[in-house]
Amino acid sequence: MFEALGRIVYRGRWTLLTLSAVVAILVAPFGLELFGRMADGGFEDPGAQSTTAAEWSDDWYGGSTPDVVVLYRHTTVEVGDDRYRNAVHDSLKALPGEHVERIVTYWTSGEATLVSKDERSTYAVITLKGGDQTKQNGYAAIKDRLAVQNLQVTVGGTVPLLKALNDQTAADLLRAEAISMPVVLVLLVIVFGSLVAAGLPLVVGLLSVLGALVLLRLLTEVTEVSVFSLNVVTMLGLGLAIDYSLFVLAAFREEIRRGVTVEEAVVTTMATAGRTVAFSGLTVATALLGLLLFPQMFLRSIGMGAAAVVVVAMLAALVVLPALLAVLGRRVDALRVLPDFGLTGGFWHRVASSVMRRPVLYLLAVGAVLVSLALPFLRVEFGNVDHRVLPASVESRQVAEAIDRDFATNSMAAIDVHVLVEREFAAEPRSGPWHTELVTPVVPVDVKPFVTRLEDLDGVTGVDYTGFSQDNGAVRLAVRYSWDPLDERTRKLVSLIRSMEPEPNMRSVVVGGSTAAQMDLIDSLGSRLPWMLLFVGGVTFLLLFAAFGSLLLPLKALIMNVLSIGASFGVIVWAFQDGALASVLGFTVTGSIEATVTVLILAVVFGLSMDYELFLLSRVRLEWLRTGDNTAAVAAGLQKTGGIITSAALLLLVVIGAFSTAGITIVKLLGVGMFVAIVVDATLVRALLVPATMRLMGGANWWLPGWLRGFHRRIEIREHEPPAPPAPPAPALPPGLVFGADTDPHPVGRQEERPDGWVRVTASRPRVVRPEGEGWTWAETD
């Protein structure tokens, strides 16, 4: 399959490159339209009780989350002064009615919660007209008209917060690319020594970034796309594109140096490195598609966008890059500025020798390190996303913090209680198609007994009437409390209110608010997480089974992934929940980790942790098929992939490190999680733990029951086996005798063809490979 794809790419190289360039130029303007079309939030479960409460607030009462909050302050004049009121109202009356639907102030509502504790600050709540995009346009039209002479005015609310997130995301993306691209280019020049070779992965990376923008822009036509998705998707696309390109480019240069034609070099590269890139891309995409099992828009949009951009990066590395290599041929090493240091060497040979000699020691030592890194996750506390994900200098965050600090406790984080009241007809309904059913109106006395019961609950500091819906027979109550919204006592209070029996005249009670939303989110994620793990683990197992023809290797790979993920989660808790890296990365410690982002990290890290193990196992399998010796295959696979995998990991770390400088805490958190996973996977797991376990498992690594061999042959995408290097001269042998390996000039037995297609060499005196000094030697054994 991949050999055929390689020949197609070689023969159509100019056509493919021309089409790729034309498509990139045409879609670039469309992709840039993404900015401003992304949505805030998306962390709630659409079917949760708290989500229903929020929808009722918007539809029945004009909204509970203000579009725009204008905070006013004077250093000496109090809010009760007529001059204060006149100045604010004169400013608000001048706002264009075409954009503003409703304005609420302390003087129009009489709400004491709209006045600060020192009575020198107040805020107005502005509701804008239209949908999300219309509200953004409306805010742009009024934001410059909100200033008031002699008053300090700052602006916040959901619409300004979303604009700040969009602006911060765009700035973070530009900064990350400005930081990572030059560093990546320098590292590529060091790895390859040639400016031409170093520039090719960057071309593929830029195509993937463009693909990320276009794919997300397309998604906005059919669904909401989280504002946080741009950095996440771009980071993955750019990093994996460079990673995959490095493997393909290294394989092509190796083939060229063997002296084959350019066409055969492209074909062999596609059949070896291309096959591995394809399986890696499918594995990462599968892990990300597992996010579609969750109902939260945040996870679903990132899952769709990230999986799609991984496929784009994979296709660019398997189509555009081979086409460029086919055109360049041996000129891929042109413009050499540094000597070729090579990607294999004595260091990885020594590592392989050491691991093969002491596998148990390495297994226990590395396992202990990974478990130690994972231990902090046992004390994880889950929180939610709020204004603190933005830098402290952002105005909309400053407004939210000022209201939390200076006004009534939890004035904007009350528990929302919606009471549906039983109503009776006051008269017979009028006849005719346009009749109106007359019912008794809803009044405060209808829910007074229930309010009294709420006021008697421990921790409740007050219950306010915040809305009536006559059409729906509903009353909205705000239950205020004395604790932090994420305090365990607040969660117990929400559960208690939900368990209260309604009064006889009440149909039902629906409880919402930030605390209820957080509780519903944890329940939603917990109920779907096992299904995600089953889906991702099952599909990954099948992909690895198809790739390697073994039952034990996929199981071992999944276990290795659990260790890498555990280490990442432990470091995240230490860095963000405990605040150990707060001063380094510049974020606000909240004492918790956002639960939805944790699931996102699980999916991303699972895919990335499988990436390098796939490249290692592919080479080990190739050596196993060639020699039939497990120990020699593991050692040779580690030695031959050590340099290239380390280089790829270093390049990916540069990209992720650049994105970790983002101003949005969610992106920092994801970046740190990915950074730790790659460091752990590329060093401890791939270089030490995987070889040690494979050395101990021996031939069992490749065990496959006879009844599965036929099935595997039908689904296997066979890997091209490059010809072995020429063997040293040897004396003539009798017919039927073969060499044990290219380094063993002695006959070891006769060759047999087994029914499953494997070649087994039977020796009268068995021979094994053993490390000796800096090399390997053949030794006879009984």
Automatic annotation (TrEMBL):
<feature type="transmembrane region" description="Helical">
    <location>
        <begin position="12"/>
        <end position="32"/>
    </location>
</feature>
<feature type="compositionally biased region" description="Basic and acidic residues">
    <location>
        <begin position="743"/>
        <end position="757"/>
    </location>
</feature>
<feature type="transmembrane region" description="Helical">
    <location>
        <begin position="228"/>
        <end position="252"/>
    </location>
</feature>
<feature type="transmembrane region" description="Helical">
    <location>
        <begin position="597"/>
        <end position="617"/>
    </location>
</feature>
<feature type="region of interest" description="Disordered">
    <location>
        <begin position="720"/>
        <end position="757"/>
    </location>
</feature>
<dbReference type="InterPro" id="IPR004869">
    <property type="entry name" value="MMPL_dom"/>
</dbReference>
<keyword id="KW-0812">Transmembrane</keyword>
<dbReference type="Pfam" id="PF03176">
    <property type="entry name" value="MMPL"/>
</dbReference>
<keyword id="KW-1003">Cell membrane</keyword>
<feature type="domain" description="SSD">
    <location>
        <begin position="196"/>
        <end position="327"/>
    </location>
</feature>
<feature type="transmembrane region" description="Helical">
    <location>
        <begin position="273"/>
        <end position="294"/>
    </location>
</feature>
<feature type="transmembrane region" description="Helical">
    <location>
        <begin position="644"/>
        <end position="664"/>
    </location>
</feature>
<feature type="transmembrane region" description="Helical">
    <location>
        <begin position="670"/>
        <end position="689"/>
    </location>
</feature>
<dbReference type="InterPro" id="IPR050545">
    <property type="entry name" value="Mycobact_MmpL"/>
</dbReference>
<comment type="similarity">
    <text>Belongs to the resistance-nodulation-cell division (RND) (TC 2.A.6) family. MmpL subfamily.</text>
</comment>
<protein>
    <submittedName>
        <fullName>RND superfamily putative drug exporter</fullName>
    </submittedName>
</protein>
<feature type="transmembrane region" description="Helical">
    <location>
        <begin position="558"/>
        <end position="577"/>
    </location>
</feature>
<keyword id="KW-0472">Membrane</keyword>
<feature type="transmembrane region" description="Helical">
    <location>
        <begin position="529"/>
        <end position="551"/>
    </location>
</feature>
<feature type="transmembrane region" description="Helical">
    <location>
        <begin position="360"/>
        <end position="378"/>
    </location>
</feature>
<feature type="transmembrane region" description="Helical">
    <location>
        <begin position="306"/>
        <end position="328"/>
    </location>
</feature>
<keyword id="KW-1133">Transmembrane helix</keyword>
<feature type="compositionally biased region" description="Pro residues">
    <location>
        <begin position="723"/>
        <end position="734"/>
    </location>
</feature>
<dbReference type="GO" id="GO:0005886">
    <property type="term" value="C:plasma membrane"/>
</dbReference>
<dbReference type="InterPro" id="IPR000731">
    <property type="entry name" value="SSD"/>
</dbReference>
<feature type="transmembrane region" description="Helical">
    <location>
        <begin position="183"/>
        <end position="216"/>
    </location>
</feature>
